Amino acid sequence: MATPTTSKLPKDFIWGFATAAFQIEGSWDVDGRGKSIWDDFAKTPGKTQDGKNGDVATDSYRLWKEDIALLASYGVKTYRFSISWSRIIPLGGRDDPVNQKGIEYYSNFIDELIRNGITPFVTLYHWDLPQALHDRYGGWLNKEEIVQDYTHYARVCFEAFGDRVKHWLTLNEPWCVAILGYGRGVFAPGHSSDRTRSAEGDSSTEPWIVGRSLILAHAHAVKAYREEFKPKQKGQIGITLNGDWAMPYDDNQENVDAAQHALDFAIGWFADPVYLGFYPPYMREVLGDRLADITEEEWKVVKGSSDFYGMNTYTTNLCRAGGDDEFQGLVDYTFTRPDGTQLGTQAHCAWLQDYPEGFRALLNYLYKRYKLPIYVTENGFAVKDENFIPRDQALADTDRVNYFRGTTASLLAAINEDGVDVRAYFPWSLLDNFEWADGYVTRFGVTYVDYETQERHPKESAKFLVKVRLWVDKRILVELIAS
Ligand code: PNW
User: Fold this and answer.
1) Who's near 459: CB < 8 A, 6+ residues apart?
2) What sections of the sequence does the record tag as coiled-coil (predicted)?
3) What pTM was computed for the model?
């Protein structure tokens, strides 16, 4: 095991837990909320693993004070949550009415956080597009409309909450929105070329069109914030991208190249435009004209449109050249090493294994390439079969503790040994919650939720993370992480 090192975090390092509105709130028809695309999608037979939906979730719309008390009991100083667009503007559009009850709800929520000494870190869009916009003009497929409507919604939020919110995330994981929603068709709105899965969609074009809308919507909201709100509100704003480390399967040059190609499609698609002002050349090579063009005028708004690098990361993929999966940049992913061993501990979801070295490598890669402070806005693990064992056993979540032991050690090493400027770390998630297409089968929480009673029970991982944060707060030796 690694020898203990003196590991410190910057004094104002942000350490909190993360959630998202649709995954926790429930109360789908309360206080004037409009539907989001996830409401009906989750209720369509076959779309979620357990056939369940977000109608109740962790009931957090009602239990918001309990959730804040839980955060306070963990001694957390920051909370990342998302605002539901269709609670603020039920029909979503720039000419549609604003719902005062929705504004009040989040306003009270923010006040209560602040009363508890917790800084709000707000995501404006975590996948819950107002259904009305999808029905009206195709949602993210319609650049002209969605960019204006999203920017308007963002303005309404800056106006209502910006006096107290100083940390904004425009969009959560645009890759997931575009690829999983309009390519693979496993997330709302479920578009895909696969007609056994979906009556609508063209997986060869729609994801790239949607991707451009997302980039532009983000960029225009940031422009509005910087020009109209930032001078007075003085907050920070940026996008948060998903992205896992890509490691060559072996040292064959084609596999070394494949790992970079994987990063270009998974991360560079959004990060290169936003931070560098161009699409990765490899994407153009593979997609040709299907990679939706961004005009000269648009590039001016896009380039430099994030104050920091927002990073959600979970795992590492071993990359081999070949295969026909365009969404992975024609790269084949595996967790099995050439010698037949597994990269790390398998999670409940097929796409996740524990490999903390990859977390450190990714931090280094992103800092070197994009040269901005990094906010880790999600990082977490779903213990295999946790949903199918008695609660007492689930609370002893050793695999998750080991995961966080590894990633927090990597975090400290990246900061202290590699000099990477990391400013925030948010484990996903505060609570077990609605895990999208997995329903409630896959649990990512550091807090166990009993869905019969809605009781919350801290898992060992919550206690572990609270301990790490305390040590780090005191800026003392973090020996236990390394032992
Ligand atoms: C993220 N993949 O989603 C989201 O931001 C969260 O809402 C979600 O609960 C969390 O990670 C855990 O899944 C992802 O297939 C969904 O690689 C799927 C993938 C990655 C991230």
Assistant:
1) 394, 395, 396, 397, 400, 445, 446, 447, 448
2) none
3) 0.97
Report the chain's mean pLDDT, rounded to a whole number: 96
> Which two three-digit tokens encode residue 187?
């997330």
Which residues does ligand 1 sit against, CB inside 6 Å? 20, 23, 172-173, 176, 242, 312, 351, 378, 428, 435, 444
CB 201 within 8 A of CB 225: no
- Give the Cβ contact number of residue 405 at 10 Å: 20
User: Does the structure show a pLDDT above 60 at 3?
Assistant: no
14-482 is classed CATH 3.20.20.80: yes
- pLDDT of res. 477: 44
What is the spatial distance between Cα 423 and Cα 117, in angstroms, rounded to a whole number?
19
Q: For 102-144, write each residue's pLDDT tens digit.
A: 999 999 999 999 999 999 999 999 999 999 999 999 999 999 9
355-371 residues labelled b (16+ CB within 10 A) or e (exposed): bbebbbbbbbbbbebbe
Taking the domains of the chain in order of start, what are their residue ranges? 14-482
C-alpha to C-alpha distance for 10 and 139, rounded to whole angstroms: 41
Which of ligand 1's atoms lies nearest the C-alpha of 380?
12
Q: What number of other Cβ atoms are within 10 A of residue 384's Cβ?
A: 16
